[in-house]
Amino acid sequence: MTLFRLIYILWVGLRYRLDELVLSSLQHPCAHALLRVVRLGMRPRRPRGERLRVALETLGPIYVKFGQVLSTRRDLVPPDIADELALLQDRVPPFPSDEAAAIIHEALGDAPENLFAQFERDPVASASIAQVHFAVLHDGREVAVKVLRPGMRDAIERDLSLMRSLAALVERLAPDGRRLKPREVVAEFDKYLHDELDLVREAANCSQLRRNFGPGTGREHLLRVPEVIWEYCATPVFTMQRMYGVPVSQVARLQALGVDIPRLARQGVEIFFMQVFTDGFFHADMHPGNIYVSDEPDTLGQYIALDFGIVGSLSEFDKNYLAQNFLAFFRRDYRRVAQLHIESGWVPAATREEELEGAVRAVCEPYFDRPLAEISLGQVLLRLFQTSRRFHVEIQPQLVLLQKTLLNVEGMGRELDPDLDLWQTAKPFLERWMHERVGWRGLRERLDQEASQWSQLLPQIPRLVHTQLSRPDQGSALHAELQALVRGRERTNRLLIVVCALLAIGLGVAVWALMPLMGGVS
Questions:
Q1: What is d(CA 498, CA 63) in angstroms, rounded to the nearest whole number?
Q2: Among the options 75, 90, 198, 285, which is catalytic?
Q3: Beta strand 223-224 pairing with 237-241
Q4: Which of 27-41, 233-247, 265-279, 389-403 has the lowest mean pLDDT?
Q5: 200/204 Cα distance (integer angstroms)
Q6: How many CB atoms lie within 10 A of CB 338?
Q7: What pLDDT is recorded for position 521?
Q8: What is the pTM of this model?
Q9: Taking a C-beta distance cutoff of 8 angstroms, is the pair 280, 314 a contact?
Q10: 399, 238, 264: which is closest to 323 by C-alpha?
Q11: Residue 386: CB partners within 8 Å, gap ≥ 6?
């Protein structure tokens, strides 16, 4: 089966002239000679990015998802290919409703007709990994039931095995293979896909995001997240509260409903930065298909988040690093940006600070002289990632995911309000966040967090000090053991020298004895 699949992949590659794409990237005379033979004097009519996109769509949903993941790695993929891969649509025909009902029955222990007061057998949405059915619980709550597509695990394992082999081949043959890290990209895709196969993990992501914007947080008015119905969740089934709203891309409908569009755009940016810098946990798939706006009277104009398969997490170090970088950008303090890169350890320690500062200035300065509507913070980050190649910067996966999400948020905000000033919207939030982190308030919060741990350790300190001081001095014994080891190594070295000398003498005698015989033979 794998052999036939490989043959089919090769056929699709030849059909869309991906052989030309591969050979043109190889800097070798033989590759260029072979390229002339393959072309037969003709060049492909369509651009290489478009040919790759269509080929991935032909190969099926798993390759479509791979292309989508690849489009986020703009630090590795040429811009023309990344832009084209970003157009890939994860839309596939739904699988039969009887199969969905059987999966629900096996996972939850009963047929959908018994589990739910009402279950719509026709799906309302279908993607490569799962499809969604609407239902009503026996207590009257309306829900959406996400069901994993059957046979996905076997199909994924089969295609991932081929991708690993191809990645190893690219790493060996392509001149830029090591920098592109194809095997690491496939490994990242492997983790991404297997995470999506576990819908309980997605339900947990949804629950966490809902808690971050839930009642009592002071930001429940910004973002609505569906409630998880845990009794109806399993690895292949995810049941959540049904949400009503309008896709954020349908601006005319939102205006007709009376939604304040500029305010909505600003709130989208605020929600993103709040997730990143306050929570360190962000929805990383914020394209218009996953973001709706409530059209219900009580919550009109509030954002609704859907599809929680991809989320990003940031450590305290990441958050501090990013916030200081953004503020340095806003203030045009390029020396500080360079220092932060070196201090983070992501740039080799031998990097000259002034050289990195000059490269950062060349990336950022042209953007500040443009109209506000043309400034893209996501594009600035992208250019910085591309510039960082010459300084051998190791781009962190969580930052690549963040940069991709920032591009989505910017695009969504500018679609709502072309005059959105992302810089001025983000700067006050970041300054306030930094003030809270480094000021007295931040110190008090960290002391409160550590107090419980200190309350356990402080009473033990006198006893631990007394125990340590009461122990007999082991220094002389350790010193004697070290001396014995040193003497043993010296004896071993002397023995090796004697053995090598004897071998050399023996070899010399043997050569001297054989020389007359060798002379007679010649």
A1: 64
A2: 285
A3: unpaired
A4: 27-41
A5: 6
A6: 24
A7: 43
A8: 0.73
A9: yes
A10: 399
A11: 74, 75
| The residue type at 164 | R
Smallest CA-to-CA distance from 279 within 196, 201, 223, 358 is with 223
Q: Say what the pLDDT of residue 106 is.
A: 95
Token pair for 455 = 């309350």
CB contact at 8 A, 126 and 83: no
CA distance 161 to 6: 11
Burial of 58 (0-12, 13-18, 19+ CB in 10 A): middle
Torsion (CA) 216, 221, 223, 224 in degrees, nearest 10: 80
Three-point CA angle 347, 352, 353, nearest 5° = 80
Any catalytic annotation for residue 80?
no
Q: Centre a 10 Å sphere on the Cβ of residue 318 and count the other Cβ atoms it contains.
A: 19
More confident residue, 387 or 138: 138
Q: If you search the block for the tokens 């919550």, which residue do you land on?
A: 299
Kindly write down the DSSP assignment for every residue of 174-229, as one continuous string.
STTHHHH-HHHHHHHHHHHHHHHH-HHHHHHHHHHHHHHTSTTSS-TTTEE-PPB-
CA distances to 344, 438, 459 from 320, rounded to whole Å, are 10, 10, 33
- What is the rounded CA–CA span in Å between residue 34 and residue 367? 42
In the chain the first and final C-alpha atoms are separated, in Å, by 63
